[in-house]
Amino acid sequence: MTNIKLLFLDIGGVLLSDGWNHKSRMLAIEKFDLEPIQFQKDHSVAFTLFENGKLTLDQYLDCVVFNTERSFTKEDFKQFMFSRTTELPDFLPWLAEWKKRTGIKIFSINNEGKEFNDYRIKKFNLHQVFDAFISSCEVGFSKPDPSIFKLALGIAQEEAQHCMYFDDRAIHVSIAKQLGFNAFVHKGFEESKTILESINKS
After folding, report:
1. Choosing a second label site near 69 at 20 to 30 A (CA), which of 22, 88, 127, 191?
2. pTM for the full model?
3. What does pLDDT average to over the chain?
4. Residues 192, 198: Cα–Cα separation, whole Å
5. Mean per-residue pLDDT for 16-34?
């Protein structure tokens, strides 16, 4: 590939774990003795609002967990939620070196509630690799809405054909491809590394 000028990356499932995914919620149900069906129903209604910046984390939790009396505190629950984020092996340090070597800018396109987004950026020093963050909580809509990809191109002032995008979800990659991105499903570090190393920057 030639003339790639900008790399867009998802964060959860690529560089970091998905912080509040189905597995984490199942563990929360067990740990905090939540009623699983009601919890999942309430989550499905409130989470997109949280992810798109319409609800704060406290408001999300008030809707989904603390809509009844609990034996634990909101801070206890938040601590558990944040603890579910881990760095995935190898990719982040390698990407920092790749960025220095190639000079290619890196932007995120990620779905994340604001408190999670801020925590993950700071905790894992994501500024070391990202020049900008196109995060759902800041722009008001989330993948797979094509609007977030179009906005990212507008912010970057770049054409999709000169951009590469990695995401661990095939539906997001499909939307990006429809818009002209060189888009790939991230299946693991080694495969994505091979693709990135094939770039012949002009």
Report:
1. 22
2. 0.94
3. 96
4. 10
5. 96
In the chain, the domains with their CATH numbers are: 6-17+86-197 (3.40.50.1000), 22-83 (1.10.150.240)
Angle at 44 between CA 169 and CA 8, to 5 degrees: 30
- In the structure, what pLDDT confidence band is assigned to residue 2 with cuts at 50, 70 and 90? low
- Please name the amino acid found at residue 76: D
What is the CB neighbour count within 10 angstroms for residue 160? 22
Token pair recorded at residue 173: 């990659």
Are 168 and 10 a contacting pair, CB within 8 Å? yes
Q: Report whether pLDDT(202) > 60.
A: no
Edge-to-edge order in the sheet of strand 105-110: 132-135, 105-110, 6-9, 163-167, 182-185
The closest of 131, 103, 135, 102 to 118, measured between CA atoms, is 135
